Design the sequence.
């Protein structure tokens, strides 16, 4: 496999397990504006896939969910296991784009007490996303 693009020295990169990596990468692009940086499939094992998608400096890794590796797509779990919080330039524009791209909007953009304007979305694999823009003070 090829080397991954460089990342900042200190960061947390979520690794999301999904049932269909190709379709998920297309969704991330269409709904949330992510750009696929890497997508590799092991030629000897097509279920073994690794992908990376970026929105500016924010990166998520994506792999194929499989009982073989003890992983499952979130929609198959009995409860929400985590959420992803992403900063964007204009949360209202981003929300409209996400809705048009097929994301389920769970909470509309709203000013939060801690200073961000935020909305909540769910992707087709069951991941919950929070997109936010700091409000001017």
Sequence:
């Amino acid at each position: 496999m090829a080397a991954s693009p460089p990342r900042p020295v200190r960061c947390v990169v979520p690794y999301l397990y999904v049932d269909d990596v190709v379709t998920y990468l297309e969704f991330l692009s269409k709904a949330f504006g992510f750009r696929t940086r890497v997508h590799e499939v092991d030629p000897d094992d097509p279920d073994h896939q690794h992908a990376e998608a970026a929105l500016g400096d924010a990166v998520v890794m994506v792999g194929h969910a499989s009982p073989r590796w003890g992983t499952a797509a979130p929609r198959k779990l009995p409860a929400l296991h985590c959420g992803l919080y992403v900063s964007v330039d204009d949360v209202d524009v981003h929300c409209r784009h996400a809705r048009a791209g097929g994301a389920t909007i769970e909470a509309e953009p709203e000013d939060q007490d801690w200073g961000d304007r935020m909305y909540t979305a769910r992707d087709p694999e069951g991941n919950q996303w929070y997109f936010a823009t700091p409000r001017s003070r």
Remarks:
- The mean pLDDT is 91.
- The chain has two helices and eight strands.
- Helices lie at 21-32, 91-100.
